[in-house]
Amino acid sequence: MKILTDASAKGGWTGGTVRILVSPAGMRSDLVAQTAKQPFQMVSLVRASEPNVTYTLDEAHKTYQKFDNATPAEDPGSPPPTLKRLGTETMLGRTVQHVLLTSAAQGKEQELWIDTSLVPPARFVSAFDRNGGDAWWTALRAAGLQGLPLKMLFRSTAQGSKETGVEAVRVQPKHLPPSTFDIPPGYREAKGPLDGAAP
């Protein structure tokens, strides 16, 4: 996927790519982005042996952090996002469902193009709501639209807000060895976001 940015927006990402890998052994995303100040990289892993844990890897410092997917990320009292169907479209020769999710309590919107033929293993999906922070997967599941988005746009509900997002450039079936989803040898667990950053 390529990162979509608003050229008029100041700060934040100015470009980059995201690669998402899915297999029975796990899920992995590799983010390589460029910000206004410096490049940024992040690897996230969810392994079949620990489906309720997301690992983020810091390749520069050979560390990792663990996040519990079983614990909701957002306030349990906040209402779920509302979903509006915007029609069926075609992207990369694949049929997608175009939807708009609005989280009024959080003041933001997500516009998604969902490929319902790409459904990740059920044991991994708790990571989606945890990482997304706004229960978007739960809303899609309730609407019978489980699948992976080939395009996502994010914006505030405030008038004139800037928009960012990602869009798939290729969908490719391939064999992924189980080691794709392993923490590399020599990595140690970081206790906080700054652990390992010091010389």
The gist of it:
The protein is mainly beta. It contains two helices and twelve strands. The protein has helices at 126-132, 136-142, and strands spanning 2-4, 13-23, 26-35, 39-47, 50-58, 63-68, 82-91, 94-103, 108-115, 148-156, 163-167, 188-189.
Structure description:
The structure is a single chain. It is built from two helices and twelve strands; from the N terminus they run βββββββββααβββ. It is mainly beta and 199 residues long. The chain has a single domain (2-189), classed as outer membrane lipoprotein receptor (LolB), chain A (Clam). The strands form two sheets. Strands 1-11-10-9-8-7 form a six-stranded antiparallel β-sheet. A six-stranded mixed β-sheet has the order 2-3-4-5-6-12, with helices on one face. The chain is globular. It starts with a strand and ends in a 10-residue tail after the last strand.
What layout of secondary structure does this protein have?
Layout: E1 2-4, E2 13-23, E3 26-35, E4 39-47, E5 50-58, E6 63-68, E7 82-91, E8 94-103, E9 108-115, H1 126-132, H2 136-142, E10 148-156, E11 163-167, E12 188-189
Parallel strand pairs: 6-12
Antiparallel strand pairs: 1-11, 2-3, 3-4, 4-5, 5-6, 7-8, 8-9, 9-10, 10-11
